[in-house]
Amino acid sequence: xxxxxxxxxxxxxxxxxxxxxGRPHTTELSFVRIEPGxxxxxxxxxxxxxxxxxxxVCDANTRQAAWPTLEPVLREANIPYTLxxxxxxRAEPDERAVGSLCMAFDRRCGGILAVxxxxxxxxxxxxxxxxxxxxxxxxxxxSMDGYASNSSSMxxxxxxxxxxxxxxxxxxxxxxIIRNAPLRMLWAGLGDMLAKYVSLCEWRVARLVTGEYYxxxxxxxxxxxxxxxxxxxxxxxxxxxxxxxxxxxxLVLSGVAMSFAKMSRPASGLEHYFSHVxxxxxxxxxxxxxxxxIQVGVGTYLTLRLYEQVRLIQPDREKAxxxxxxxxxxxxxAQTRGIFGxxxxxxxxxxxxxxxxxxxxxxxxxxxxxxxxxxxxxxxxEEELPPARDILRLAQTLGMPILPEEIGIxxxxxxxxxxxxxxxxxxxxxxxxxxxxxxxxxxxxxLS
Length: 448
Prior knowledge:
By secondary structure, the chain is an alpha/beta fold. Helices cover 55% and strands 10% of the residues. The strands form 3 sheets. The chain has a 6-stranded parallel β-sheet with strand order 3-10-7-6-4-5, sandwiched between helices.
């Protein structure tokens, strides 16, 4: 099956979906309804998931947005439920939030209905995994791509992590509700979709350099969704239903792609790591970060600007080898602690015991592949990435923030996020490529 041209209904609700990559692709998602008036499909979604009595989770904002439409549908279908409204202001996806949900959970319920977007859905996935029950997502905004993924983006011990647990059994997205989400949340969804330009490029480069698993069929699915979003993007500010639907479907299909690949690679690259580090900095300072997709959009523009320089690089083997020979592990540890604070200790330990990204032997092997494949790497960049000026122009047309200073990110925090990006996890990013070339500390960061 060609994933890029298949409707959502043919990609879900079935067993293994085999493709040319040789791996079976599965998703626990079995029902999706994204259209105007989709709230009426909630009883069917719950039934498909095997949930007779849902534990409904929302916050004050999502309750206001969805409950006047959702409650009559539940009442008409005679569906009993327990409603839990997250207390206080904006919740963060951390141990405290999940712990409070576990304590509030009603054991009479047979599953979870998450009413909201990013934080609520991520926390509800973790809750569903903890209690061993299915979940359904009722989307209130097209603000992030995690609806259909089998992972949750969480803060654990002060560190941004992806917890692989389970994806929802069903997703309902009522365009009549979603299109009226705050405009900043519409921008966030677009930002999370624009990120796919970078993630697909880096995935292909990583396959060449490290031999990482790659599936062109999954990449094609994400690429086709991105093209549809790009065609409609300029109408998003007017809340055009088709433009909003394109973004919402693209975000859901990105999650399906991550489930198929069993990793975040099809939808997340350096641009997401800019956002991850900024979030961790904000939490450490006791501040609330901006919306994930907004930060990712800014990270996407920064990464596209970086690639303007990557295109001009002439790799130098001797320079790269001298860089690694002179690499100071203690200085790197001090830098990591300066960027991440207490969270740095787990990164340093993972580098020592598991990742070995700084090991000279591993570097020599990767460098050999980079030098051998450099023309192919340049071709991938040309094939996958749009000019940064096109993204800037689109953002300005929509009134969407795209520069770090527009979301309160200081110049030094851009630099810190860039240098720290390769240390969070063992994912081969643009910053990893520049480290291997001996250029990470020399590259000019685009700050405007």
